[in-house]
Amino acid sequence: MSNTPKTVGVGLISVGWMGKVHSRAYQALPVVFPELGITPKLVIAADTAQDRVDYAINVLGYERGTLDYTDVLNDPEVDVVSICAPNFLHAEIGIAAAKAGKAFWIEKPVGRGAEDTEAVEVAADAAGVVTSIGFNYRHAPAVEHIKELIASGQLGRITNFRGVFFADYSSEPNGALSWRFIRKLAGSGVLGDLMGHLVDLIHYMAGPIADVNGITSTIHTERPVQQMGVGTHFDVIEGGEKKPVENEDYAGMIVRLADNAVAAGAVGTLEASRVAVGPRASYNFEIYGTEGSVMWDFERMNELQVAIGRKGQHLGYQRVMVAPGFGEFGAFQPGAGTGMGYDDLKVIEAKKFLLSYIGKESKNSNIHDAVAAARVNDAVEESMKTKQWISIKPSANTTAAVRK
Hints:
Blueprint: E1 6-13, H1 17-32, E2 38-46, H2 50-60, E3 64-66, H3 69-74, E4 80-83, H4 87-99, E5 103-106, H5 114-127, E6 131-133, H6 141-152, E7 158-167, H7 183-186, H8 190-205, E8 209-217, E9 222-224, E10 242-244, E11 250-257, E12 267-273, E13 281-289, E14 292-297, E15 303-308, E16 318-321, H9 329-332, H10 342-357, H11 367-386, E17 390-391
Pfam families: GFO_IDH_MocA (PF01408), GFO_IDH_MocA_C3 (PF22725)
InterPro entries: Gfo/Idh/MocA-like_OxRdtase_N (IPR000683), Gfo/Idh/MocA_oxidrdct_glycsds (IPR050463), GFO_IDH_MocA-like_dom (IPR055170), NAD(P)-bd_dom_sf (IPR036291)
Keywords: NAD, Oxidoreductase
């Protein structure tokens, strides 16, 4: 690669929490990965609120701002776009970005279900633009290491697994009825929000899911109304008018992996909840093989539990701290014990996205991965209605772990 830094013009759509995270990731990229020779340039940010546009310019460092997201897509200095708007705008903006010929990094869920997501896929494929999806947990060094353990056969034949993504961010019954609880705005509830991440992790480490039998439940069926554009879904409203919650708080499924998966034929259970009392962000999984097993929990992101071997004096799990040599850990910290954080995973995501954009390695998640996860989540809802197993339509060109 040339020693001359390659400048990449960045546009941002929506300056909320995730928009800020994306911006910090772009800014950190030359510091953490100077060898890439990529210098992101924050060109223009769009939001519907002027105070957020001002924040993007005055604090985040964008050169200019706008209240109209199409200005970002039409800006000739913008090469790539981060789409961090609410769910119900993802498909509209993703399709518009593709038609404008802009590579885009979009947060999940890409659409309110598989139909929306597939529409973005069609537009991106037609335009030939690079895409990347906000499946950040796959970039944790422990996850990357576990993916290697499975692929190398060190765990033997994978037999079964279980994953649990439990959070408490909606556990308060008087939590505001934000857009996240309204189907026409959010689509599904915890399926699109947390389960999408968990499904993607299984696809990424072990291979695509082929069959699903699922169940969903809404625990808090009504919530107090929140004025659109005011506050966040963390707000608590006492004594307000209540309206129905239109999507699920909990989802569970029994799954079987596809015959072409690295862990072909393995079976497992996956669960997600946004109303659990106790877990803060307990996003974890266990994977079992004939020669060993692994466990990981995001709340202890910088360690994993590993057991390899069935004989000897020292059987059972060993606590392993991630260190240089595990994924991208060495780019952030010099040794085990000094941990990485959530934002660091987004820096890795930015790296993979921009490397793919400039025509180097394509190890980033892509729109096809988003479609694959959305199809599984839609199948859970269909299974809930029919009380039957649902087979998943395979997705081409994903980054799922498959047999070579």
